[in-house]
Amino acid sequence: MFDGQSHAVDAVVIGAGFSGLYQLYRLRELGMTTRVFEAGGDVGGTWYWNRYPGARCDSFSAQYSYSFSPELEQEWEWSETYPAQPEILRYLNHVADRFDLRREITFNTRVSSAHYDPAANRWTVTTDSGATVAATYLITAVGCLSTPNKPSFPGIDDFKGAVYHTGLWPHAGVDFSGRRVGVIGTGSTGIQAIPVIAEQAGQLYVFQRTPNFSFPARNRAVTPEEIAETKANYHELRAILRASPGGLTYGIDPQGSALEVSAEERERTFEGLWNRGGWAPLLAYTDLQINLAANNHLADFVRRKIASIVKDPATARVLTPTDHPIGTKRPPMDTNYFETYNRPNVTLVDVRNAPIEAITEKGLRTGGKEYELDAIVFATGFDAMTGPLFRIDIRGKDGMALKEKWAGGPKTYLGIQSEGFPNLFMITGPGSPSVLSNMPVSIEQHVEWISDCLKYMREHDLARIEPLHEAEEAWVAHVNEVANYTLYPLANSWYIGANIPGKPRIFMPYVGGVGNYRQKCAEVAARGYEGFALT
Ligand code: N01
Fold first, then answer.
1. How many Å lie between the centroid of ligand 1 and the Cα of residue 189?
2. 404 Cβ neighbours under 8 A, 6+ residues apart
3. Which of 267, 286, 376, 396 is placed for a possible disulfide with 421 were both Cys, Cβ 3.0 to 4.6 Å?
4. Cβ distance 328 to 490 under 8 Å?
5. DSSP state, residue 343
6. Is 377 in the pocket of ligand 1 (CB under 6 A)?
7. Mean pLDDT of 357-365
8. How many CA atoms lie within 13 A of 38 on its CB side?
9. What is the per-residue DSSP string for 64-117?
10. How far, CA to CA in Å, does 354 sit from each of 207, 209, 309, 468, 533?
11. Which of 330, 438, 500, 508 to mutate to test the pocket of ligand 1 (most atoms within 8 A of CB)?
């Protein structure tokens, strides 16, 4: 048991969400002593913090789960096609209990610094409770979207009402009945929360800076037949996910170019996939994410849908995205999002041309008008990917800070390690498919790759691993090259750091596909960890 004082272990893992729990499980299997630090009061990571109304996963439930234990697969049953936050949190708690993981986790404890000592080949990890732990390996399982972004509007402290961030939602829930609520932000989170808050609130104002494309999820209960079929075929399903581009399958094989079919056929195809639900329309043709003209056809289709759903033409216009190709920002998935603007208690406020001037004592001022509010909900997203790592004072060889090394944008080899930071492994770090994939699939792949690497090091009597300079440079160039082949860089998205003032604009995740990436990582390992210096 960790006594809260100085301590030495083989590995420290930071975070007890999907990644940290599985990493702990695998380290235990290797016989390594491990300490996991978790800022939250319990396991769950993203699903511990994001308890906002309507929080739900955009991946199919059976696909958004661990594959490492056939017993776990067989005993757990998901109730809906897209699982809601409470169900995912129950699942992660079940995993922690079933594998008895909590005993190596210290909760309510944030890692404040991690410094590498080259002479001892050790990381010294310090927490906000003052404890220090020495570890040979440091593994970050901090998540990609876990540092809330809360814009500092002037006057925020003057507001007399309640203020919430969706990523730090009160555990007891919030009752908005009869209240005047303002929601800032229309990303995936806002788009999930707005319809649910609208049903409760007296009056809801949505402050929208950038309109977003959104796809109806068409979530529903899973039938007993579907559960039985999934359980019988998990093995095949996992193989498909691991080889797929996004770690997710709709059972749709994109066919040909959107530019090579008639307008009628294209419309029929889009309509069929729109009715099927979720991101299916994005899989209609092979060129939707690489050819602007092809992309425009789908974008126009969704724009027409918005116009047909939203009754007030002026509101529909403001809700219609025109500034980015469809799919180049993480596409939200909704339940009655556009329909919500037909409710008499919902008002859309365009803060694109008249940005939010200030939060006042009574509410929020924009365009010279004050909106009186009882509560403000920040659905303003996260300082993605690098934010959670920069919150920790990570220093490698020669005392170099990770934040300093990455001042111009993250530099990694395979998104797993960064030169100058020996024995530091990042689960779903920048430069890996991570946020462009169904997270559990990428998490499992990283955890297994890292665990195999540690086993290899032990078997070969190796004490240190870090990337070679050339290998890292080549990987960063490759990550950029494949991103530039797609339409992704055309959007001002959090993928390129555009949502955080002053953040360098670099496309952070690896867009080359989960299957390809897995193969590259496996080849690197098979060649004795090619591109890494092992000593
Ligand atoms: O955050 P976002 P999110 N003034 O950054 C607006 C994952 N996720 O929490 O677009 C006014 O996408 C901002 O406006 P703009 C998923 O990967 C997954 O919604 O920058 N507005 C935008 O509208 C997702 O992509 C799931 O102009 C301001 C919004 O706030 C990621 O999390 C569910 C502003 C932020 O959107 C992040 O999503 C939910 C300002 N100063 C989330 N600053 C599921 O799987 C920001 N905004 C289900």
1. 6
2. none
3. 396
4. yes
5. S
6. no
7. 98
8. 25
9. SS--S-HHHHHH---SBSS-BHHHHHHHHHHHHHHTT-GGGEE-S--EEEEEEE
10. 11, 9, 26, 49, 53
11. 330
What atom in ligand 1 is closest to the CA of residue 330? 25
User: Is the distance from the beta carbon of residue 145 to the nearest atom of ligand 1 less than 6 Å?
Assistant: yes
Cα–Cα dist 39/458, whole Å: 30
What is the rounded CA–CA span in Å between residue 225 and residue 109? 43
Predicted confidence at residue 2, as pLDDT, reads 60
Digit-coded pLDDT (tens) for 120-145: 999 999 999 999 999 999 999 999 99
Beta-carbon count within 10 A of 313 CB? 8
To test the pocket of ligand 1, the residue of 81, 145, 189 to mutate (highest count of ligand atoms within 8 Å of its CB) is 189
Cα–Cα dist 197/192, whole Å: 9
Q: Would strands 363-366 and 356-359 be described as parallel, antiparallel, or unpaired?
A: antiparallel
Could you tell me the distance, in angstroms and rounded to a whole number, from the CA of residue 149 to the centre of ligand 1?
Answer: 9
| Residue nearest to ligand 1 atom 11, measured at CA | 209
Q: Which of 412, 517, 530 is nearest to 475 (CA)?
A: 412
Q: Which position has the token pair 């430069």? A: 431
- 142 Cα to the center of ligand 1, angstroms: 19
Question: Residue 7 — pLDDT band, cuts 50, 70, 90?
Answer: confident
Distance from Cα 65 to the centre of ligand 1, integer Å: 24
Nearest CA to ligand 1 atom 3: 381
Ligand 1 lined by 392 (C-beta under 6 Å)? no
**How far away, in angstroms, is 501 Cα from ligand 1 center?**
14
How many Å lie between the centroid of ligand 1 and the Cα of residue 381? 4
- Measured distance CA(4)–CA(329) in Å, rounded: 43
Tokens 């790759």 locate to 449
The answer to whether the CB of 186 is under 6 A from ligand 1 is yes
State residue 4's pLDDT score.
57
Domain assignments of the chain as residue spans, ordered by start = 7-147+384-534, 182-378
**Rounded to the nearest whole angstrom, what is the distance from the C-alpha of residue 167 to the centroid of ligand 1?**
11
Establish how many alpha carbons lie within 13 A of residue 31's alpha carbon, considering only the half-sphere containing its beta carbon. 2
* CATH 3.50.50.60 corresponds to the domain 7-147+384-534: yes
Cα 277 from Cα 275, distance rounded (Å)? 5
Q: Is the pLDDT assigned to residue 1 strictly greater than 70? A: no
State the pTM of this model.
Answer: 0.97
Atom number of ligand 1 nearest to Cα 167:
9
Strand, helix or coil at 164?
Answer: strand
Task: Give the whole-angstrom CA distance, residue 215 versus residue 428.
Answer: 26
The token pair at 213 is 């494309």
